[in-house]
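Students often ask what a 'structure token' actually looks like in practice. Rather than answer in the abstract, let us consider Bifunctional protein FolD, a protein of 286 residues. Its sequence is given first.
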Amino acid sequence: MSAQILDGKAASAAIKADLATRVATLAEHGVRPGLGTLLVGDDPGSQIYVAGKHRDCAQVGIESIRVDLPATATQDEILKAVDTLNADPACTGYIVQLPLPKGIDENAVIGRIDPNKDADGLQPTNLGWLVLNEPAPLPCTPRGIVELLRWGGVEIAGAQVVVVGRGVTVGRPLGLLLTRRSENATVTLCHTGTRDLAAEVQRADIVVAAAGVPSIITADMVKPGAAVLDVGVSRDAEGKIAGDVGLGVAEVAGWISPNPGGVGPMTRAMLLQNVVEAAERAAGLA
Ligand SMILES: Nc1nc2c(c(=O)[nH]1)N[C@@H](CN(C=O)c1ccc(C(=O)N[C@@H](CCC(=O)O)C(=O)O)cc1)CN2
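Now compare that with the structural description of the same chain:
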């Protein structure tokens, strides 16, 4: 068996085309959404992702505002930049690119974001709305994963999903999203304290690997026909991506997301979608 490809590039291109028409409609109502990014330091991966977000904005007609601070920026300087974005009327939504440099209190910075401008759905108020199942911007990678599964025709309702990794940008919110009534999956969240990872993965219909450990998911762990999504991004010395899913898994799985070209482009598309939806709500067009 060879797995069907969950092509995030193709799926995100269709989403972006739809968003471009919605941005044009907003323009007819005198509304121009603007996405801000705050990047601190020189992490090579973060530089690539932020540049991609600005390219995406240009493609769909969203204005973009880029704020870069050096790796030496203090907590106070970062909070000041957050306050400036909170106050900037041209910036209708923004993100603080993660991770922040060592020594910075990440939660304090995210907590300072105006929840109404939180394009990432990671501000504590919005994560709280997600727990309460109330409308709010959703975290981009989990939302992108759900959309990619739907796009590929993978049955989510009733599925046994194993998520590997309990990080705040992927694993934890993904568990909340997939267990909503509208998705209705059963989710097991695995992490470094999981006793027998292989046994958990072996009974999964859908595996989401977001551990950041190269090739942690091997072919012998995967149930034949399962959907396997690779969210892991480790980089070698040349900056080349090594995913969490090992060689040979594609021969066993029913669906597989490439990495790059799978969940990453969906993450970026969902960020644009959050920005457009917020602008539509504000304009009374939602
Ligand atoms: N504030 C946030 N920080 C981070 C998030 C997030 O959702 N919000 N998630 C990740 C990184 N991320 C988004 O910022 C992200 C990851 C990957 C991609 C992407 O398009 N990847 C490409 C490959 C690009 C490359 O060559 O490296 C792909 O998969 O095809 C976009 C965004 C951590 N931080």
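One point worth highlighting: The first strand starts at residue 4 and ends at 5. Ask yourself how you might have guessed this from the sequence alone, and why that guess would often be unreliable.
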